[in-house]
Amino acid sequence: MKVIITGATGMVGKGVLLECLEDDRVSEVLVVNRRSLAINHTKLREVLHSDFANLSAIENEMSEYDACFFNMGVTSIGKTEEEYAKFTYDIVAHWVETLYKLNPDLVFNYVSGQGTDSSEKGKSMWARIKGKAENYVLNKGFKDAYMFRPGMIIPEKGIKTTATWYSPIYFILQPFYPLFRRMSSVTTTTRIGQAMINSVTVNQDLKHLESGDINKLSSLS
User: Fold this and answer.
1) Measured on CA atoms in the order 208, 123, 135, 32, is the torsion positive or negative?
2) For residue 174, what are the contacts with CB-CB under 8 A and spacing of at least 6?
3) Which end of the chain has the smaller Cβ count within 10 Å, N or C?
4) Do residues 102 and 94 lie in contact, with contact meaning Cβ atoms separated by under 8 Å?
5) Which distant-in-sequence residues (6+ apart) come within 8 Å of 57 by Cβ?
6) pTM score > 0.85 for this model?
């Protein structure tokens, strides 16, 4: 399979990328980033692009793919609802429109987060907007789509969080990782990557995947 990955400079996206590079089922990985990963691999093709709200300049690079693993996101802290929607919903919608035009038989996986509001009517601003983005993806008409809603994520294979406000928390919790790994409410960067890949080959009815669902999908083949 040939996959497109966004957010590969972040913790989740980096985990998904590493699993794709290691999995024999994945023949090619296109990473679209604002800055280079500085990774050399025979499967990896990197396109640097600054404006994720306008993909017209790189559309010719994005056709004939089987899946898009969309891991990109920003914090809602310090942003108005309009600002957060611009960086979240608007960008996702543009990617959906572009990729549907180029690859209608594609599987689109979107990482939102635990607590995302599918009704789009709740009190939490970020959850409403993430829910709106999820609904847009699910209703577009792709071959398939899955909404990944992880809670706590354990970074593996040397990956570190890029969110500076989380780093002290991860450092404190590190001794407890072996215990957390046994909890169904906790997932890992490795399991998310494996679940993403499996979602392309194993169709299932459940489209909103919490941590336990992600862990189960990661074990399928």
Assistant:
1) negative
2) none
3) C
4) no
5) 49
6) yes
Cα dihedral 142, 129, 211, 111 sign: positive
Kindly give the interhelix angle for 125-140 and 91-102, rounded to the nearest 10 degrees.
Answer: 10
| Residues belonging to the chain | 221
Q: Cα 205 to the chain's mean position, in Å?
A: 19
Work out whether the CA dihedral 71, 97, 196, 23 comes out positive or negative.
negative
Domain total in the chain: 1
The CA distances from residue 96 to 75, 128, 181, in Å, are: 21, 18, 33
Question: What's the CATH code of the domain at 8?
Answer: 3.40.50.720
Which residues form the domain of 44?
2-218
Q: How many other C-beta atoms are found inside a 10 Å radius of the C-beta of residue 160?
A: 12
Query: Which tokens belong to 43?
Result: 């499967």
Tokens (6 digits) for 158? 């040397």
Q: What are the backbone dihedrals phi and psi of residue 96, each rounded to the nearest 5 degrees, phi first?
A: -60, -45
pLDDT digits (tens, 9 = 90+) for 101-152: 999 999 999 999 999 999 999 999 999 999 999 999 999 999 999 999 999 8
